[in-house]
Structures are given as C-alpha cells and as structure tokens.
C-alpha cells in the first residue's frame, strides 16, 4: 500500500493550488447519526452530528419519538380520568404531573384541599424528586464508567417505590392525587416506612458522594465540560437544575408557592459555572433538600380529612353508599359522568425534577377539559443540547447529554 509522504502533499498542493487544498481539507466533515436510542427501545432522541475529526462542529436534535397525543387524550376524558394519562408524560415523575394538573383544576373550581392532603402531596412529590434524580445519577454515572453507582441509585429508588406502592397500590404510575385531595388516606404503615427511609437517607447519600465527589476520573470528565452561561440558559428557556446550575435561583416552589410549600424551610441549591459538574452538585444537593422537606411534612402531618367533603366532587365512603340512596346516586354520577367545572382558563406551574412543568387548562363548563396544554421542561432542555455540545469532543457529548435530563442518560447505547 502506498503511504502518503510529505512530497506527495506538496505535489498535491501545487497541483490544486494552496487555497483549494485548504478549502478541501476544511470541508472534510463526517455526519453521524446518534440514536434514536432508549432503554426501552422506542427512542426519545436522535442527534445528527457533524464532526471534524472528533470535534462536534454542528448538531441537530430530532425529538418526538415518544409523542402519544397525551394532551388530546386528556381532552376526551373526564376531569378525574385525565389524571391517569397525564401520569405517563414523565414516567420518572408521575406525581409531579398529577400535582400540577389537579392544582389547575382546583383553581378553576375554586376549592382548596384539606391541609392533610396538601402535606401528603408535598411529601410524596419530594420523594418523587429524589427517585427521579436517583435514576438520573445512576444512568449518568454509568455512561461515564461508574458502574457501582447504578446499583446504589436504583437500590435507593426501590425504597421510594415501595412507599408509593404502600399508599396507592402502584409503583410507577400511581395516579394517587385527585381533584380535591387524595384517592385515599395514607395507610397505617406509611409513616413508619417513610421515617425509616429518611433515617437511612443521609448515610446512603454519603456513600454516593464518597464514590464520586472527589473521584479524579469523574472530575476529569465533568468539570468545565458543557458549560452554560446564565444568559444562555434564560434565552433557551431552561428551568430546574439546569438553570440553577448556572447560578440563577429560580424555583417555582419559592417564586410561586403552592400546596403549602410556603410552610416548609428549605434552600435552593445553586451552581457557579453551569457545567456538567455543577449540574451534578445541584441535583445531589436537591435530593438532600427534598429529604429535609419530606421530614418536615412527615413530622408535621396534620390530622383530619384527606379530600374535600363535597359529594359532587369526591366519592362518598363505601359504608355510606351501602346505606344511603343519595350517596349511591352521587357515587354513580361521579363514576359515570364526573363533575362539571366552571368555564375559564388557568395556568398552574409546579417544580418537577426536570424544571418548571406548567398546565394550561381550559374549561367550557362541561365534565371534561376543552383544552389541556403542558409546558414540558424536557422539551426546552432538549432544544439546548445542540448549542451546548458544539465545539466539544464526541466523548464529552455523552457526559453533557446525560447531565441535561434523566431520560437521556442512556442515549449513547
């Protein structure tokens, strides 16, 4: 095989002309399709990369592989039934989806759930935040070669899913929140299970930090990689940990408190550089703050009702249905028809593990939503990926994408 020598290059330059040779070299780019990939094989993201060697010069994101028309599905269900499909928008944080939607409907109805229901909602959504961040951490670290973290993270998440199963009967999509309160009161073993988990949590978090916080291989992969400025983050519409890692202290729970969050003492962790390492530190600190909120909610859990005592909104107790014709009529009406919601429109945002998730809900006065539109934080996270990874190496792309959103944690497989 003939090897290219220095004289060959000089001869070619003389034949083509210096400028033509330089243009040809500069135009040699490789286009690579990354994805669509997903642990469940149906794909959530595809990236089309233009490479100069191993450097990403341009990128385009293709999304929508998981689009199932959930918003339109919700518009063909009654107000309570829509909770079950909105659960599935984010299978890592279904209770956050539930909470934002029921708060929007309750605002249209002008009702406020009992304080016991509000505290249980806060407690469970903060546990949900921890569970979601644990999946993010497990897959993110695994992508960079830290295999033990994967097992640690999913083991810790199992304890939270056990709690969800205890109160709702389901682990992944509990559909536990209802317009007006909760589907049912917490079980007798609920307090004991949550207390045991929160007692063990600091030690388990210490184990995770001991593996990664000062790991030289981990630090070399994540520090000063994929940095985002505060101005860029705001311009791209980033929220949640990705925004706070840039030093912008916006958190819906603090800015627009809902569901009694104003009664809890917690901090909003911030980063300094907006890089992969800061996104890691912010999420780790958020898990600790979520445990702090959950402990306050558990210790201060009020007694009393777990849903509004309005027979036109809440199902009557079973024992009452057996002995009261009026209760039976209300039960039949709620199950077969639901309830009407006064005409109007509302926007309600909550702080999900991925950022601000907002529900724009419109009622025409009927028994089902006329319009449901969701502001999905992951959509804004995704649109920023091509801008963040440009100029980085392909190897760094893996770390950057995995740091942005938990669903992208295995995009390189």
Automatic annotation (TrEMBL):
The keyword Transport applies. Transmembrane segments: none annotated. The keyword Lipid biosynthesis does not apply. It holds the Pfam family Complex1_49kDa. It comes from the Bacteria. It is found in: Cell membrane. It is a peripheral membrane protein. Keywords: Cell membrane, Membrane, NAD, Quinone, Translocase, Transport. It is an enzyme of class 7 (translocase). It catalyses: a quinone + NADH + 5 H(+)(in) = a quinol + NAD(+) + 4 H(+)(out). Residues 143-413 form the NADH-quinone oxidoreductase subunit D domain. Its main location: membrane. Its EC number is 7.1.1.-. HAMAP family: NDH1_NuoD. NDH-1 is composed of 14 different subunits. Subunits NuoB, C, D, E, F, and G constitute the peripheral sector of the complex. Belongs to the complex I 49 kDa subunit family. NDH-1 shuttles electrons from NADH, via FMN and iron-sulfur (Fe-S) centers, to quinones in the respiratory chain. The immediate electron acceptor for the enzyme in this species is believed to be a menaquinone. Couples the redox reaction to proton translocation (for every two electrons transferred, four hydrogen ions are translocated across the cytoplasmic membrane), and thus conserves the redox energy in a proton gradient. This is NADH-quinone oxidoreductase subunit D. The gene is nuoD.
